Amino acid sequence: MFKQPGRYLRFFGSVARYTMVREMSFRGNFLVKIAVEVIWLGILVAFFRTLFASTKSVAGWDESQYLFFMGCFFAINGLIECLFLDNCNEFAELVRTGDLDFLLVKPIDEQFLVTCRRIDWGTAPNVLMGGVVMATALAGMSWSFDLARVAAFCMTFACGVAMCYCFMLTLTSFSVWMVRNQSLMEMWWLFSSLARYPKEIFLGTWLQPAGFILTFVVPIMLVVNVPASTMVRAFDPAMVAFTVVATALAFVASRAFFRRALRSYRSASS
To answer: Based on the structure, what is the number of domains in the chain?
Structure first.
């Protein structure tokens, strides 16, 4: 995968075109999926506007900052759902039916093929909607352009997507032993739900140790907090560097675990 990036980009482009044509074959379903996502974002925005009508800040985040945080989460979550979620959900079925055999014999990296076989275009607009929410928040706070912050945000945003992918890949890999992964993917929804809140909510409470673990041990709280904070609150180079290192370690560990799981896989013919 790392030696022939052009080949994989061409393959991914073919997958993108194929899945788009397939989505357009059922335009009604596609439009309904987009409408649901728009309604869900509208409900979230309405909820937080109502919340901030009664308070000036939540865990130290004012209304514009929290709006940016929410837009950042929506964009990251949209990318994950668009690119990886359906593929990872289907891995258990591939194991159960033995169809994984057909993927393992193909001359392409197994992890790439398993996790990037199709794109869910119905959730792709979430990325755009998240971007609009972030832009609206920046305009509301009269944010002045800062190249260093923008560069750090883009880098940590990419790290957030990669870190979510690593968590999802790790949970998915357990399907080799458990065959069904419904409960595992419910754990993923738990992780993604935690990521939508500022890590400061744990400070000064009996849950503060949990906040430390979810930030520095199982760093799910870094996914949205670091890019959003870097852009609209304190620019902490140490946290940016830690996020990059944590992402690299998570990728190496999740890939090693996935390959270990494949070595334990017993094909349908065995």
So the answer is: 1
